[in-house]
Every structure is written in C-alpha cells, then in structure tokens.
Specification:
TIM Barrel; 13 helices; about 15% strand; globular
Length: about 280
C-alpha cells in the first residue's frame, strides 16, 4: 500500500504537533507497507463486537454520575514517565471498579511510550468501551484501531484538514466506532461541529506551550450545541475541577495523568466519578 501525505494540512500547526504529525506519516508508511490496508481491513472485520462508547457516557450522565473516560498511559511529552511499574490490565480493572464509563489508552510509542498491546491488555481486563488515543492521520490507522479492539478513535482537529477529518470519521462510522473530535479553540470547535460525531472533546492543554487551563472548557463548552456532548480533557485534578467542568456543561471528562500518579488509582477515580 502506498500511503501518501495529504496535499494540505491545517496551516500553522503548533511546533510540537507538527513534528509529531510528520513523524506519524513516516510510521504509517512503514507499518502499512508491512501490513497492507486490505489485510488490515480483514483483521478489523474479524475483531469481534464493538462496545458502545457514546452510550456508556450517556448512561453514566443519565444516572447522575460524571462520565469519566479514564486514561491509561505510561508517559507523556509534558509529564515524562508517569507510572512505573505500569500494568494496563490492573489499571483497567481499577477504573472499572471505580465506576468509570470508558477507557482511553495511549498507543503512540515515540512520545507516550504506548503500544497496541497496552490497549489489547486493558480492554481484555474489563467490560468498558475503549478509545484508542493516538494521532490519526490515515484510514489505515482506523482499521488498525478496530483490529486491535478499539471502540472509538480520537481526531485532533488541529492536526487535520476538514477533508481528512471527514474521511477518518466516515471510516470509523463504517466500522461502528465512535469518534471523539478534539478542539482547543472556537475555530476548531466550529470545524468539529461539521462532523457527525456527538462527542466534542475540549482540550484544556495549550498545544504551543503544553500548559493547561481548565477555563478553556468554561469558555468553549457553552458553545457546544445541545445535541452534542462536550468532554473536558486535561488539567482536571480535583473534585472542585470536576464540578467546574460540570457547571460549564461538561459532565463528561477525560482524566489521565492525575489519576495515574495516585497510589490508589481506584479511590482517585471514584472521587472523580462522584464529584458531580
């Protein structure tokens, strides 16, 4: 399979994201040469039934809980090594016991020390739907995501053109996968609302400076239409932060580093779920 880079990318990418995307194209070319798309599509078709990612979040909110997407990652560019020893299966079981609605698992290796095996292990250890958190740029990766068992994918609007985002979402929908469209500002939100997905992730981390400010969600969540579901991401550390997000209209949150740095992950996650 010949994977060509797109003719146009959203202009003026933040330096870190631009570098990651450039490296990801090299990775996808190499990996798709080893496993052609036709084979990856076959593996995706054989992956077994999907778990309802969006439905799990809606169910949690309907029951009066916070819809927690609990993240599993070994490291991050801003935080370095986060958890060692690191057991995706153990973390998945702890999150499930705490009442999390879904999981998010990092699979990017160069920047997050993630692997597909982390997602496979986590999903096998629980009944929660799982988001593959990686830098999606090509349909091959969407089929790969389903093949490894992912129930949802992340689309980072800052790193995609509208045409790319549309194409990736179309492939995901054909596989009955959910899409979390991630935005950082009003312009990206406007673009994300052109997609069909109900899930709009508001990332509180500034991509240029890699610092967080949860006021970003307070600014953007009220702009999300009622038929969509805002998901606050990054910088959420305390029950008060959770309540601030809920007051802004985001009763679904994605939390990773804070939980992963706690000695008792289950108790920390339960406090998030019950904070709203």
């Amino acid at each position: 399979m010949n994977v060509a880079a797109p003719d146009t990318i959203v202009p003026v990418l933040p330096d870190t994201l631009a570098r990651i995307i450039e490296e990801k194209w090299v990775e996808v070319r190499e990996r798709s040469a080893a496993v052609p798309q036709a084979e990856m599509e076959r593996r995706a078709a054989d992956a077994g039934p999907q778990r309802d990612f969006t439905g799990a979040l809606c169910h949690a909110v309907a029951e009066g809980r916070i819809g927690l997407i609990a993240e599993i990652k070994r490291a991050s560019p801003s935080g370095g090594l986060i958890r060692d020893p690191f057991s995706p299966a153990e973390l998945a079981r702890s999150y499930e016991a705490a009442g999390a609605a879904c999981l998010s698992v990092l699979t990017d290796t160069p920047w997050f020390q993630g692997t597909s095996e982390h997602l496979i292990e986590a999903r096998a250890a629980c009944k929660l739907p799982v988001l593959r958190k990686d830098f999606m740029i090509h349909p091959w990766q969407v089929f790969e995501s389903r093949a490894m068992g992912a129930d949802a994918i992340l689309l980072i609007m800052a790193g995609l053109s509208d045409a790319q985002a549309d194409e990736l979402e179309e492939v995901a929908r054909s596989l009955d996968m959910a899409v979390l469209a991630e935005v950082h500002d009003e312009r990206e939100l406007e673009r994300a609302l052109g997609l069909e997905t109900r899930l709009i992730g508001v990332n509180n981390r500034c991509l240029k400076r890699l610092v967080t400010d949860i006021a970003t969600t307070e600014r953007l969540a009220p702009l999300v239409p009622a038929d969509r579901i805002p998901v606050a991401e990054s910088g959420i550390r305390t029950p008060e932060d959770v309540r601030r997000m809920a007051m802004a209209g985001a009763r679904c949150i994605l939390v990773g580093e804070h939980l992963l740095r706690q000695p008792d992950v289950e108790s920390a996650a339960r406090a998030m779920v019950q904070a709203g």
